[in-house]
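I'd like us to work through together how a protein chain folds, taking it slowly. We need material for that, and I hope you will provide a protein of your own picking. Go ahead whenever you are ready, and we will take it from there:
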Amino acid sequence: MPTTDDGLTGTILVCDGCGRSRRTSATGRIAWDLLWLQADQAGWTGSDRPLGPHYCTVCVGNG
């Protein structure tokens, strides 16, 4: 199970603009798809692939 720098496990999405992040405790193949679906519905933009780029709602609003 992946572990982040803060010791939490799961999957994380980081904004390429400002560094904000979203996290899910899910892991495995479907974890990214679930996380991106939630982020997309919350207004994040970018690639639906883990490599990005990805932008949070704050950065999208500033663009």
About this structure: The two ends are 35 Å apart (CA to CA).
